[in-house]
From TrEMBL:
Originating organism: Biomphalaria pfeifferi
Assigned keywords, A-Z: Disulfide bond, Glycoprotein, Lipoprotein, Membrane, Receptor, Repeat, Signal, Transmembrane, Transmembrane helix
Membrane-related topology note: Single-pass membrane protein
GO CC terms, sorted: plasma membrane; receptor complex
Keyword Lipoprotein belongs to the record: yes
Protein name: Very low-density lipoprotein receptor
Signal peptide residue numbers: 1-18
Length: 100
């Protein structure tokens, strides 16, 4: 039984590694390529969350909430636009949950 679990774990690791390598090699038109070659969804660039392990997706982004994927809270905090109207007070003042 232990042997089967080890073999299955190894197989899953190999498949995931192969998919990751393939994903690194071919970025789609709607992807952003991180410095290390990993592709992420382009909408994740400048969303105030580091999705690339090296932070490349947040490098050179506006810091004044003017990015297309940003929302400026009433208290001037910047959050990713996708957090607006998600039933979670991401701003801390509930302004991201108004007019939903």
């Amino acid at each position: 039984m232990f042997f089967r679990v080890c073999v299955l774990s190894l197989l899953v690791f190999v498949i995931v590694s192969a998919e990751k390598k393939q994903r690194q090699a071919l970025c789609l038109a709607n992807d952003f390529k991180c410095t290390n070659g990993v592709c992420i969804d382009a909408t994740w660039k400048c969303d105030a969350e580091e999705d690339c392990s090296d932070g490349a997706d947040e490098a050179g982004c506006p810091t004044d909430c003017s990015g297309p994927n940003m929302f400026k809270c009433a208290n001037t905090k910047c959050i990713p636009a996708q957090y607006k109207c998600d039933n979670d007070d991401d701003c801390g003042d509930k302004s991201d949950e108004t007019n939903c």
